[in-house]
């Protein structure tokens, strides 16, 4: 019996740590999207210019619609993730947006464009070259985080699953 106490304590600690890490990842990812959306929501003209600079959308009307509504989608998804409302939906939206953003950024890099990514409505001097590898690494990290969180949301955290016949953190047997 003595030998089983330590594994139970460790399992409980591991479960608490995993849950805390998942909550932290959701809050950070949600906060990034909340900040990104808020930084663009009231800078519509600048964001429309950033979208247009990618050269992927020919319609000026569509560029304007995206510049108006995309920041609010980011705000809604980020806020939903932070307050844990419709987490799976928020994560699916964020993952989808990150796929689109990563594709657009890759396209700009391949075509040799020197543009502001438009991610956080930041301004940069015209003479500065776009740092595509850093931007893509960031986008891929955010995409991976969203996908992993979505997987956990749908299938549960590894700490939540126990092999059949093994005791869970409370010592009860799962079959």
Q: What does it look like?
A:
- The protein is mostly helical.
- It contains five helices and no strands.
- Helix 1 crosses helix 5 (132-155), helix 2 (44-53) crosses helix 3 (60-82) and helix 4 runs antiparallel to helix 5.
- The longest helix is centred in the first third of the chain and has 40 residues, at 2-41.
- It is elongated and about 60 Å long.
- The chain starts with a helix and ends in a 20-residue tail after the last helix.
- 21% of the residues are buried.
- Residues 159-165 have low confidence and may be disordered.
Q: How many strands, what sense, and barrel or not for the largest sheet?
A: none
What is the alpha-carbon Rg in Å? 21 Å
Distance between the termini: 20 Å
State the helicity in percent bands.
55-70%
Q: Strands, helices and their partners?
A:
Elements: H1 2-41, H2 44-53, H3 60-82, H4 87-110, H5 132-155
Helix pairs in contact: 1-3, 1-5, 2-3, 3-4, 4-5
Compact summary:
This protein has 175 residues and is mostly helical. It is built from 5 helices and no strands. Helix 1 crosses helix 5, helix 2 packs across helix 3 and helix 3 crosses helix 4.
